[in-house]
C-alpha cells in the first residue's frame, strides 16, 4: 500500500531538496535530487514536477539549496543579490503560462532589494534570505487549507437540496501540484472530510493524463469516492447525472477574471453554463496576474507533439501525423461563478478591486 509519504511532491530541509518524479507516476515512486536552479529548470520544463503552485515552490527552494551549498563562493552581498536575482529570472523561463514562479521571483526580489541596502553582514544576509525563501513552503500549505475551507463552505451553502454533492474536476490540482492539500482537489478533500461529498468525477485530462496518472493516484490513496471519465464524456455526464459544481485550478488569472488552466477547462466551463452548473476556479492569489488585463494577453505554452502521439514510447498515431498541442486554454470570466482563494471567494468582476484592497491592507 502507498504511504502518506508517497504524496509528498517535494521534500526539503536546508541544503537538501528532492522532488517526486511525476513522470514516473503511478508506476514508480522515485525522488530526484535538485541541487541547483538549473536542475529545477529542467525538472519544471520536462514536467517531472508540474502544477502552478509547486512549480514556484520548487524553483524558489532550488535557489535556496544552491545558495546554501555554495555560500563560500560569495564574497559580497552584491554578488549574492545578483546570483539570486539571475537564478530566479532564469527559472521564470522554464514554462510560460503559470504565473506563480514570476510572482515568487518578484516577491523575493522586492524583499532582497531593501535588505541588500540595510544588511552589512554577508552571513546574516544569506540566512535572512534563506529564511524568507523557505517561507514559501508554509505559505502554500496554509493557503491550500483555506482554499479548501472557503470552497467547501461556498459550494455547500449553494446546495439547496442538502444532499451529498457530486463534483467534477479536471487535471491534477492536489498534493502533487501544491505543497499540501491542493487547490481544486483541496476543495474536494474538504468536502469529503465534511462528509458532504457523494462522488468526485475527474477527467483523464488528455493529452498528458494528469487526471488518470496523478489525480487518480491521489484519490485512490485518500480513499475518496471517485469516477474517472474521458474528457469527451463530460457533456453526457452533465446531461445524465446531477453534477453540483465543477471545480478546477488555475495557472494564471487576469485582472478581469479570465483564467488560463489545463487544456479542456474551457469546454467544461461552456458545458457547465449550458447545464446551469456552477463553475469555480480554485487558486491561491499568487496565481492572479493584475499586470494582464485579459486572457488575450496570456502566453499559451505549446508542448511537443510526442506528448500527444505517444504514451510510454508506444505510438498512438502514425508517424508523421501533424498535431496541435496547446497545453492550456483560457476560460472567459463570464463563464466563471466564483474564484476561490485563500482570502475568500470572489466574483470575477470584483477580483481586481478585492486583491488591490488586500495588498494595500498588507502594506499599511
Ligand atoms: O501542465 P500542468 O500539469 O502543469 O498543468 C497544471 C494545471 O493546469 C493545473 O490545473 C494548475 O496548474 C493548477 S495546480 C494547483
From TrEMBL:
One of its GO terms (molecular function) is S-methyl-5-thioribose-1-phosphate isomerase activity. It catalyses: 5-(methylsulfanyl)-alpha-D-ribose 1-phosphate = 5-(methylsulfanyl)-D-ribulose 1-phosphate. InterPro entries: IF-2B-related (IPR000649), IF-M1Pi (IPR005251), IF_2B-like_C (IPR042529), Initiation_fac_2B_a/b/d (IPR011559), M1Pi_N (IPR027363), NagB/RpiA_transferase-like (IPR037171). The active site is at residue 251. Pfam families: IF-2B. Belongs to the eIF-2B alpha/beta/delta subunits family. MtnA subfamily. Catalyzes the interconversion of methylthioribose-1-phosphate (MTR-1-P) into methylthioribulose-1-phosphate (MTRu-1-P). This is Methylthioribose-1-phosphate isomerase. It comes from Rotaria socialis.
Amino acid at each position: 500500500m502507498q504511504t502518506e509519504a508517497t504524496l509528498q511532491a517535494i521534500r526539503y530541509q536546508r541544503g537538501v531538496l528532492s522532488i517526486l518524479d511525476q513522470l514516473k507516476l503511478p508506476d514508480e515512486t522515485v525522488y530526484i535530487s535538485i541541487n541547483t536552479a538549473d536542475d529545477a529548470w529542467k525538472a519544471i520544463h520536462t514536467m517531472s514536477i508540474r502544477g502552478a503552485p509547486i512549480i514556484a515552490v520548487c524553483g524558489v527552494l532550488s535557489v535556496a539549496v544552491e545558495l546554501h551549498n555554495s555560500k563560500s563562493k560569495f564574497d559580497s552581498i552584491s554578488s549574492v543579490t545578483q546570483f539570486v536575482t539571475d537564478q530566479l529570472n532564469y527559472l521564470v523561463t522554464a514554462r510560460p503560462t503559470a504565473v506563480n514562479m514570476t510572482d515568487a521571483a518578484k516577491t523575493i526580489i522586492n524583499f532582497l532589494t531593501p535588505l541588500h541596502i540595510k544588511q552589512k553582514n554577508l552571513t546574516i544576509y544569506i540566512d535572512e534570505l534563506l529564511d524568507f525563501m523557505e517561507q514559501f513552503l508554509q505559505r502554500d500549505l496554509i493557503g491550500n487549507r483555506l482554499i479548501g475551507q472557503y470552497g467547501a463552505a461556498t459550494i455547500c451553502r449553494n446546495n439547496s437540496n442538502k444532499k451529498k454533492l457530486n463534483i467534477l474536476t479536471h487535471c491534477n490540482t492536489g498534493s502533487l501540484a501544491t505543497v499540501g492539500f491542493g487547490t481544486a482537489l483541496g476543495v474536494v478533500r474538504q468536502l469529503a472530510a465534511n462528509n458532504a461529498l457523494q462522488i468526485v468525477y475527474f477527467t483523464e485530462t488528455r493529452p498528458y493524463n494528469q487526471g488518470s496518472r496523478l489525480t487518480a493516484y491521489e484519490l485512490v490513496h485518500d480513499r475518496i469516492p471517485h469516477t474517472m471519465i474521458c474528457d469527451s464524456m463530460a457533456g453526457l455526464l452533465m446531461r445524465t447525472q446531477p453534477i453540483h459544481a465543477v471545480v478546477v485550478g488555475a495557472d494564471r488569472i487576469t485582472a478581469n477574471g479570465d483564467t488560463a488552466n489545463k487544456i479542456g477547462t474551457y469546454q467544461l466551463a461552456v458545458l457547465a453554463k449550458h447545464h446551469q452548473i456552477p463553475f469555480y476556479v480554485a487558486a491561491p492569489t499568487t496565481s492572479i496576474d493584475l499586470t494582464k488585463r485579459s486572457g488575450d494577453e496570456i502566453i499559451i505554452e505549446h508542448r511537443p507533439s510526442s506528448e500527444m502521439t505517444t504514451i510510454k514510447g508506444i505510438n498512438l498515431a502514425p508517424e508523421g501525423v501533424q498535431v496541435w498541442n496547446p497545453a492550456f486554454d483560457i476560460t472567459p470570466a463570464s463563464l466563471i461563478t466564483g474564484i476561490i482563494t485563500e482570502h475568500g471567494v470572489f466574483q470575477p468582476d470584483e477580483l481586481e478591486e478585492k486583491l488591490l484592497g488586500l495588498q494595500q491592507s498588507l502594506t499599511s
